[in-house]
């Protein structure tokens, strides 16, 4: 197997020796410290140039063993709820702790106040219900707005601006709430929007036009504006200059501190999933291979998004002589990673390496079919590999019941 591939998802494998690769168990997630550092440095550069603050959205990447590596580059963590907020507090206690949840629970809110510094509410009703307690506890309070300007077509499930969305407060919702409770506005320290997914700064600029059009009158009195996530900042070719102009535009015009909270960008192309071919089959015209990793269990976004992940040394279907459909060992007919082409057909025992596997994988996997969770390893900058965590039968059983 050729380990040197300069295409972005595999560039970091140049550090990995054949011997180190062969010693990894499969399936196995391998997190790439050099690539994480590279991403961190790009994000630090944006902060240094513009004065904005960039948070790690933990829902995309929360392998806290590697938080110390990112810590010098990040301003804080962003959480989707109580547990992620607590994780950020435990693992990066010196950093800012931000949380957004579509609806907070009464029985969790007091504990959340122990962890979070910035609390963002999704609706005027949630702001009215919890905002006064958050303010009394000294928290910075925000409202997620919905600027109602879709900038993506590809993935409807990732478009919070779609008609009928529950995410974010529209201007009409805000005006209606304010008419009944004029005191709501005084609770706000900032506004938050999250409308992008794997997008470039041109989509951000369009979103900012809509934010100004709909909510511009609220901004001058506020302390901060959070641009959410979905900024593909560390992708080769991303227009950093346009991003920096977007940040400067809002900071200068409204005097607000700009925050960004990407998830993907921190760990983009910074991980691999190493898997072994367990069996090969032929069904009519279709060549198949069954792997020891499952798309449904170990890379759920492959099915949910859906997308076809990059595979080292493989081409598009039909591009190379042998096209093979790769699937997992579960009972699910749709547990298919995708169709790939190879110079020679993969054989039982071959190792395959999927790229860009650090995001939305280790934090989103599951044990459907009793599938074991792959261990998580780290690839250090000197090319050595070490195990961060391994899982066993108990990690499957403990979620299903408890016999005293
Ligand atoms: C998902 C999400 C993020 C991170 O998104 P990425 O696409 O991983 O950058 C940030 N903020 C909020 C509110 C989110 O829902």
How would you sum up the major sheet? 8 strands, mixed
Backbone shape: globular
Number of strands: 16
Bound molecules: pyridoxal-5'-phosphate
Measure the end-to-end span. 50 Å
CATH architecture of the largest domain, please? Alpha-Beta Barrel
Structural class: alpha/beta
Q: What does the radius of gyration come to?
A: 23 Å
Low-confidence stretches: 1-6
Strand content: 15-25%
Task: State the CATH class of the largest domain.
Answer: Alpha Beta
CATH level-3 fold name of the largest domain: TIM Barrel
Give the integer mean of the pLDDT values. Answer: 96
Number of domains: 2
- Helix amount: 25-40%
Question: How many helices?
Answer: 13
CATH superfamily of the largest domain: Alanine racemase
The sequence of SSEs as H and E is: HEHEHEHEHEHEHEHEHEHEEHHEEEEEH
Give the helix/strand layout:
Elements lengths: L17 H6 L4 E5 H18 L2 E5 L9 H4 L5 E4 L2 H10 L4 E5 L5 H10 L2 E4 L2 H13 L3 E5 L26 H10 L9 E3 L8 H15 L8 E3 L13 H15 L2 E4 L3 H4 L3 E13 L2 E6 L3 H4 L1 H5 L17 E6 L8 E7 L8 E5 L20 E4 L5 E5 L3 H5 L7
Parallel strand pairs: 1-15, 2-3, 2-9, 3-4, 4-5, 5-6, 6-7, 7-8, 8-9, 11-12
Antiparallel strand pairs: 1-10, 10-11, 10-14, 12-13, 15-16
Helix pairs in contact: 4-5, 8-9
The chain binds pyridoxal-5'-phosphate.
The site of pyridoxal-5'-phosphate (PLP) has 15 residues, from helix 10.
Structure overview:
It is an enzyme of class 4 (lyase). InterPro entries: Ala_racemase/Decarboxylase_C (IPR009006), De-COase2_C (IPR022643), Nsp_de-COase (IPR005730), PLP-binding_barrel (IPR029066). Its cofactor is pyridoxal 5'-phosphate. This protein has 404 residues and is α/β, with parallel strands linked by helices. It is built from 13 helices and 16 strands. The strands form two sheets. Strands 1, 10, 11, 12, 13, 14, 15 and 16 form an eight-stranded mixed beta sheet that branches. The chain is globular, with a radius of gyration of 23 Å. The N terminus is likely disordered. Bound molecules: pyridoxal-5'-phosphate. Pyridoxal-5'-phosphate binds next to helix 10. The site of pyridoxal-5'-phosphate (PLP) has 15 residues, from helix 10.
């Amino acid at each position: 197997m050729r380990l040197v591939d300069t295409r972005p998802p595999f560039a970091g494998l140049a550090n990995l020796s054949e011997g180190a690769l062969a010693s990894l168990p499969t399936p196995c997630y391998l997190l790439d410290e050099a690539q994480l550092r590279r991403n961190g440095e790009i994000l630090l550069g944006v902060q240094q140039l513009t004065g904005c603050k960039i948070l790690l959205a933990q829902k995309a990447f929360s392998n806290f063993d590697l938080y110390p590596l990112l810590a010098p580059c990040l301003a804080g963590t962003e959480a989707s709820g109580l547990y992620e907020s607590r994780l950020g507090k435990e693992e990066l206690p010196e950093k800012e702790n931000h949380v957004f949840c579509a609806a907070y629970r009464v029985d969790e809110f007091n504990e959340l106040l122990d962890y979070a510094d910035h609390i963002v509410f999704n609706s005027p009703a949630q702001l009215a219900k919890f905002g006064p307690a958050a303010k009394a506890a000294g928290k910075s309070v925000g409202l997620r707005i919905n600027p109602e300007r879709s900038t993506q077509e590809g993935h409807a499930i990732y478009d919070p601006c779609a008609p009928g969305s529950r995410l974010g407060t529209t201007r009409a919702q805000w005006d209606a709430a304010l008419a009944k409770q004029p005191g709501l506005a005084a609770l706000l320290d900032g506004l938050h929007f999250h409308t992008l997914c794997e997008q470039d700064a041109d989509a951000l600029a369009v979103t900012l036009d809509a934010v100004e059009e709909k909510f511009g009158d609220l901004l001058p009195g506020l302390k901060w504006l959070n641009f959410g996530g979905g900024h593909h900042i560390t992708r080769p070719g991303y227009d950093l200059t346009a991003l920096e102009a977007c940040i400067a535009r809002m900071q200068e015009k409204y005097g607000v501190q700009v925050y960004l909270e990407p998830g993907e960008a921190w760990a983009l192309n910074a991980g691999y999933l190493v898997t072994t071919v367990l069996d090969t089959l032929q069904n009519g015209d279709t060549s198949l291979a069954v792997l020891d990793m499952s798309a449904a269990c170990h890379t759920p976004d492959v099915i949910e998004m859906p997308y076809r992940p990059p595979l080292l040394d493989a081409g598009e279907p039909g591009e190379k002589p042998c096209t093979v459909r790769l699937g997992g060992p579960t009972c699910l007919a749709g547990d298919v990673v995708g169709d790939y082409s190879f110079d020679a057909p993969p054989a039982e025992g071959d190792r395959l390496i999927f790229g860009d596997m650090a995001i939305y994988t280790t934090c989103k996997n599951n044990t459907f079919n009793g599938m074991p969770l792959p261990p998580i390893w780290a690839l250090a900058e000197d090319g050595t590999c070490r195990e961060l965590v391994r899982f066993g039968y108990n990690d499957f059983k403990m979620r299903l019941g408890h016999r005293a």
